[in-house]
Structure formats: C-alpha cells, structure tokens
Design goal:
The protein is built from nine helices and 17 strands. Helices cover 27% and strands 23% of the residues. By secondary structure, the chain is an alpha+beta fold. The longest helix is centred in the N-terminal third of the chain and has 21 residues.
C-alpha cells in the first residue's frame, strides 16, 4: 500500500507541475545586451545594497551608449543628498534617495523617467513593475522583507504578456541580491514572492518612516495598472515523501529545459542539474524541502505539500549541505572530545529554519539535535546542539 501511495502521489505531483508550467507563456529576462562588467555587482559595504542595485541599473540601460558604470561610493553620496531628511537614521537608501540617482540627478541618469511607485497595495506595485519592465526594458530596484533590503529585479515569467489592462498571472520572478559576502541570483515563484515575509509577504515595518506599511519599488511613472493574479502559497497538508519531491524536481527541470525557460543567470543547471537527497526543513508554521544540487553553487526549494517549485538560488561561492546524520554525530563527538567529554547518544537531527538567524534566508537553516554527554567523573548531561547546514557547530558544548 505504501509503494502504491508513493507512485500515485508522484504521478499527481508530476501532472500538477506539468499543467502549471503549460500555463506559463511569457518570459522576460534583462538586460538584452550584457553590460561590462557582467551582473550582478556585490554590495561593497553592509549598507550598500541600494547603491549596488543602482550601479547595476545604470550600467544596464537598454540604450547601450547611455550606460554608466559608477562607483558605489559616488552613488551612495548622491543617494544621501536626496534621502528624505526626516527619515530614521538607520534608513540608508530610502526610495527618494534611490529616485534621486536614477532620475533627478541628470549627470548619472542613463535613460527614462522614474517614479517612487511604493504603495500599500502590493498588487498595484507589481502591476506597474511587470508592465514597465516589459515596455521600457529597465531593470527595477525593489526593497524586500520588513526592513530595508534593496534587490534588482531582472525578469519574470507570466501566463501572458502584461498589458495596460486585464489580468496577468505571475509564475516566477528573477532578481539579483547584492548581499555582501554572498551575492546571489535568485529565482522565486510568484506564490512565494507574494506571501513569504522574506520578499513581499509583508511591507516595510518602520513606524517612523514615511513608507511604513508600503511595498517599495522605483518604476516608470504609472499610467496603467494591470491586474496581477498569483497562485496561493500552500503551507499546510500532508507532507510528501522524499521520492515525490525528487520526481517533482525532475519534472520541473525537464519542462523548463524543453520549453527553454531557464534564464541566463541559471544556465549552469543545464550542465549539472543532478541533486543530492532533499532535506525536510521545519519552519515555524509550515515545512519545505531544501534540495542541494551537485553543482554546489545551486540549491532549490520545493513545496513540501504539493511538490511545486518555490525558489532557486545561484551563489557566487560554493556551499555544502550535510545530509548524513552519522557525519553530524561524528562532528559532535569530536567536539566533545576536545572538551574531555564523551558523547553517549544524540537524538535524530532535525533541520529548522529560524528567520532571525538565517543569513541567506530559507537557504540557511540549521540542524538541531539533543546530545547526551558524559564527563570524566561519569556525570551525564543533555545539551542542545545547533549546527549550520554545512555541519559546523553553532551552539553546544563550545559555548559552555
């Protein structure tokens, strides 16, 4: 019965994935002509996500003769001149400052006119973003999460070409995250983008700011507002077995290759899309599968309940995900020996996602286990141990 259930589940997941992909008919990735140096550009300082995004946009103008490559220091200096002076001191690059570089400062502005398209209605902002990216071929700066974190949207996938009226369904969105130390190309499903607090699941949360409770984006001046439709993000139900997730991933990758829908930043998945064992990750009120790829710069996230694609991350540096409980136990045992203690036993390790401690969002969960150790006198104690996804101890005996 169990084998039959798994086979039926795999078939259902595959069909759902295939039908969802068939509905995707329009595809946009910018810039059409790559700039020099090639995108993305990492933020050179912790608070330079805004300047890094502007730097990418200035040097990716569709009019190649108007492209600018400016230092992030120069861009930040201009941002500070245009920032709203009444904003909180921690607000490094507010939308007015970003707009000042892209539009008001004529010495740098490469092309087009720009507008602070921030609004409490996320679908209104999304509609403008999709339509004007397609119309003007500009990369777009948006802020994600509940605090200031600027990223550069480079493209998207929808069911139809966005028009100035009528509904359009957002399937996927692609952007560059210039986070210092681990700049990445990100591929996120429309469902996750719209509902996850890491992206546009929540607005800016800063009661002292003029943009409090808004979704932030710098876009072309709005004339039309397409109606954006987004599939619900499934976060409850029966968790699918690992074999179903493998099947779902294989079906998704095959479909994307056959339809030639893999954007340029992620083309390395064509060469090596093989995966390691998917890992079930427990978040606060839902679960998801983290899928490490053999290509160590790539990792994917798939929905644990319906097997749908959610995210793909391409990092500049390689990362490894420990999936063998015995390796986790060996690491803990070695750590205990260094402290002249003996590891007696460990509980089954569980991978958990804590947004407050995750450097790279859902791609940086931690392993959690309970270790029973014994000192030289024979006294036993139980210690909670946390290890990062690569197997390094974050919390445990070393902190005692």
């Amino acid at each position: 019965m169990k084998t039959r259930y798994i086979l039926i589940t795999c078939l259902i997941v595959f069909l759902q994935t295939a039908m969802a992909m068939d509905a995707s008919a329009y595809y946009l990735v910018l810039p059409d002509i790559p700039p020099t140096p090639a995108l993305p550009y990492p933020a050179e300082q912790d608070h330079y996500s805004g300047p890094a995004c502007v730097q990418m946009i200035l040097n990716s103008c569709p009019n190649t003769t108007a492209r600018h490559y400016n230092s992030q220091d120069d861009i930040y200096s201009i941002i500070l001149l245009h920032n709203k002076n009444t904003e909180p001191a921690t607000w490094f690059s507010d939308p007015q400052g970003m707009l000042g570089v892209l539009y008001k400062d004529k010495a740098l502005s490469p092309c087009g006119s720009w507008y602070d398209g921030s609004d409490t209605d996320k679908n209104k902002v999304l509609g403008h973003l999709l339509y004007y990216m397609d119309t003007m071929k500009y990369l777009m700066p948006v802020s994600i999460g509940s605090s200031e974190h600027w990223v550069t949207v480079i493209g998207y996938q929808t069911d139809v070409k966005p028009t100035y009226s009528g509904p359009v369904t957002l399937q996927n969105i692609w952007f560059y995250d210039p986070l210092p130390g681990n700049v990445a190309a990100m591929w996120v499903s429309g469902s996750v983008w719209n509902s996850n607090a890491l992206y546009w699941g929540v607005p800016l949360n800063n009661s002292a700011s003029s943009w409090h409770n808004k979704y932030l984006a710098i876009i072309e001046p709005p004339k039309f507002t397409p109606v954006v439709v987004i599939k619900d993000w499934v976060r409850r139900g029966r968790i699918l077995p690992v074999d179903s997730i493998k099947q779902s991933y294989a079906g998704w990758l095959t479909t994307m290759k056959e339809k030639k829908l893999i954007p340029k930043p992620f083309e390395s998945i064509n060469e090596n899309g093989a995966i390691d064992t998917p890992i079930l990750v427990q978040a606060a009120d839902y679960a998801y599968y983290l899928i490490p790829l053999k290509n160590r710069r790539l990792a994917a996230i798939f929905n644990a309940y319906d097997g749908s694609f959610e995210e793909l991350r391409l990092s500049q540096r390689e990362s490894r995900f420990v999936i063998d409980p015995q390796k986790i136990r060996a690491t803990i045992a070695e750590n205990m020996r260094l402290h002249r203690m003996e590891l007696v036993e460990t509980s089954a390790p569980v991978m958990r996602y804590d947004p407050k401690a995750a450097v790279n969002g859902r791609f940086s969960p931690v392993w959690e286990t309970q270790a029973v150790v014994q000192d030289r006198t024979g006294k036993k104690q139980q210690i909670p141990v946390l290890l990062d996804q690569e197997g390094a101890i974050l919390k445990g005996i070393q902190s005692r």
